[in-house]
Structure formats: C-alpha cells, structure tokens
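Priority: low. Protein: Phosphoglucomutase 1. Input follows.
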Amino acid sequence: IPLQVVTVPTAPYPDQRPGTSGLRKRVFVFQSRRNYLHNFIQSIFSSIDLRDRQGSTVVVGGDGRFFNQTAIEVIVQMAAANGVGRLIIGHHGIMSTPAISCVIRKYKAIGGIILTASHNPGGPDGDFGIKFNTVNGGPAKEAVTNKIFQISRTIEEFAICPGLRVDLTTLGKQMFDLENKFKPFTVEIVDSVESYANLLRNIFDFAALKELLSGENHIKIRLDAMHGVVGPYVRRILCEELGCPANSAINCIPMEDFGGQHPDPNLTYAADLVDSMRDGQHNFGAAFDGDGDRNMILGKHGFFVTPSDSVAVIADNIFCIPYFQHTGVRGFARSMPTSAALDRVAKATKIELYETPTGWKFFGNLMDAGRLSLCGEESFGTGGDHIREKDGLWAVLAWLSILASRRQSVEDILKDHWLKYGRNYFTRYDYENVDIDAACEMMEDLEFMISDKSFVKQRFAVEDKIYQVEKADNFEYTDPVDSTISRNQGLRIIFSDGSRIIYRLSGTGSDGATVRIYIDSYEREHIFEDTQVILAPLATIALKISQLHHRTGRSGPSVIT
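Result:
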C-alpha cells in the first residue's frame, strides 16, 4: 500500500536563524517545542527550488549525539514528502562532517543535512544542531541561510510521510512507494567510512605512512576521538589500514553524550590526552571534536602546536603531500582572527594569501573558483580543497606525512619553522555563556570607542612595553569571487609593531553569548618564550580597553587556548 503524505499545520518560531555552523540549541528546545524540528527541516527543503528538489539526492548523517536518531527519522519522512528522490545516510545515522562533504561531492547530491553541534557537549542536557551543506559539499552561504530563516519566520505548514520507517542498521537500499508519486523513494544506507577513506588514499602516500606508523623504526602515536564520530574512522584508517596498534586510539566508541565530556580538542577539554603525552612515550598526539572536523596536534611530552602554527607548517611543507605535487598550490587562506604565521609562508613562497571572516563557507567559495588549496582557522580547523569542510583526520595525516618526510620530531619541526620565519605568539580567551545583552552592549560601546579618529595613534603602556594604535576597525570582507560584502566580522585593533587584539561574539554556542578575545604578536628574536608571558601586556590592554570583566561580571575566561 503506498504510504500517505500529509500536510500538517504549524506556527513559526522567531529564533531559528542559523549561526556560523547551522542552528544550535539545547536538546530540550527541540524536544519541548511543538514541531520545532519539523519547522526547520521544512524551511531547509522549501529553500530549495522545487524543480531542483524533485527526484534529487540528499545526504544525511550526524555525530551520534543524543537526539540524532529521532531527528533522522523525521528528516527521512519529510524528505520523502518534499519530493526528494534519494537519501544517502551513514550507517546507524553516523557520518563525520568531512565524510558528508565528500559524499555530497561524490554522488553529486543537491546538499546534505548534518546533525551536529560540533564541539559542544551532548546528551539529554547538552546541545543539538542542524546544518545544511549545499551542492559543493560546503556550508550554505549567507544568502541560503537567510532564506531558510525567512521561511522559518512565516511557515504555516509542513509536509511529512508519517508511516515511513527506515532501518539504519542494515547497509543497502530500501525502497518506499508513496501515494501520488510515480517513482519510489529510495533510502541508501552506506558505509560511513569507505568513500572518505578512498579519498584520503588518493591524497596521501599510504605506503610511506604505514612505514612511519608500523615499520621497523615506527613512531608511537596517541589519538583521542573523544567519543565522537571520528572513532570508527581512526580505527579503520590508522589502525587497520596503516598498522597502528589498537591501543594507539582511545575513546573511539561514539557516545550520545561523548562519555560525559566536552568533545572540544583543546588544552582544557582534551587534558587527559595532554597528560598522557607528558611521559614522552608517544612521539605524536592528536584529538578530534564531536563531528570530526577539528583537530589538536601535540608533540612528544605534550608539546602544543597552535592551530595557527599548524596550518603554517603544513603550508611550508605542502609538497610532502602527493596530492599537492599533482595539483600545485593555488592559494592559502586563514580566518581574520587566526595569527599571521601563514602570511609569512605565503610571502616567502609567493603564493596568494586570503584573509576571510570566520566560517568555512568563505574558504569554499575561493576553492570553487580555483583560487585556494590550503586554509585554516585558529579554532582548531585545518583543511584542503579535497572537500569543502575543515577536516581533522586530513590534518593529522598531513602532519604524519611531514614527519615521514622530514624524520624530525614535532617540536623540532616547529622550532625550525620559527627560526626560519619568526614566531607569531597567539592566544584566545573565551568567555562562555555571557549575558547576551551585556555582551552586545559591550561590543557596541567598544566599536564606538575604536571608531573615533582620536583612538588611532593612542599609546598604551604596560610595564616596559609601549603599544601605539595604527589601525582600528570592524572587519569587513569583500569576496574576490562574487564581490559579496560581509560586514561586522570582528573588532580589530592593530598596533604599529603588527600586534593585534581582536574581539568577536561567537556564533557557535547554544546558550547566551561567547565573547572571544584574540591576541597575536610577532617576534623575530625571542622565539622560545612562554606564550602567556609574552602576550601578558597585550592581554592587560585588551581587558582595559573593553572593561570586559566589569561589563560581563566575569573574573576570568572560561577557556584559554
């Protein structure tokens, strides 16, 4: 009997504007507000032209967090009712964000729905998120997310096929007949790892990596999947294929609450990995976030590689990766808050450097235009033009390729890099769950202050250091590909010595506001000092100018990276 498609009346919600990485809310919001999930999914489908939607292919997967299975059931029922011809879903509904980007591109899908709140906590009391990626495999551009938001504000009904039930546990195709549909609706459950693993095999020299990781003089590594989606990928690719011992990979079983941990690969939330590296048994360590697009790189004894330095080192050693030997290097890019370490490599190699707002969609536009090969963000994201998302496992294999080629330690590679280029000391202070009104008022007052002409040339003295303001603005980006303008992308104070203080409100939280202060300072001589000591004067200035502690009621940051 053909399954019935029904139209259900609904009422709009005013708060479904997608942020930098989709719509993120507490789980209870999706559970307790009537049709909250349905409204947003319908808004996604309605944002796609009906002619493009009919018979199309859409990819679906998530990081396995709580509410993932429930959401997939609704998405399947609504995709069928909205004319989608085929859904490709990861086995058990789980697929990493980089793998979804890969599969969208491989199957020429019109897009993908990614169920993740990335590095935010999971579980019944945690966060849930929905992100829409478009045909290029990358996050939807602002024009698309704005359209989704506008539809969500006026939505009156949604279409659904409530009797449709899909089995996520069995690989293969499932066909469903729907009333008034000429062709059956197809759901294809696919191996979550294989397409992505095959892509990596065509990028890296797996034979050289296998020798590095399991050959006669192999190095010892430790990889922490933080109970996120990347665990099965690490086991299949690093352990089974490249020969790492099984105990090299920890926390590899995806869990709905990430084992009660915060799946954010930084020195605070991946402290267990850092501690386990201190005894010097392991030469290389890495951690991944909930959906597998972020990474943290560590050397022996827990030597920390900042994400800003990580992308710069990969850029300087880019031809250790066979893929770039074949494609050449078209350009480098970094987000505006990321340190200028990459700029120095770009200048030395005479490769174009782009400075973009935060958000991977800006990199994707440059990649689609053939202008960009490698990019990174200070928020632990690194990637190449093989897909249109940042890619944690790709970054780890890039680093291992450099180690295989240079046969040096992580620390020695970094120190050689600083000797060659100088060092950009970088830190970020996160103030999480700040009252949103207090945060916005502080940012407005701060912008008013730095926009005054008298602010430029002001001097700030801390101990024996004097910093003079050379430039201050609210960062604005004109896309060199399509000339679209993105305004209000972060407040910048740039000093005469090139040091920078940046203030931003983050768009990746689900509660309150996250205020971020970024500090970047270049040193040519003093390159082996403690980061927080070197940057202490600028941190003092940043807090004095913003009066952040007074304005937010916070005595210090939630996280320092």
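Residues 423-560 form a domain with the TATA-Binding Protein fold (CATH 3.30.310.50). The first helix runs from residue 27 to 32.
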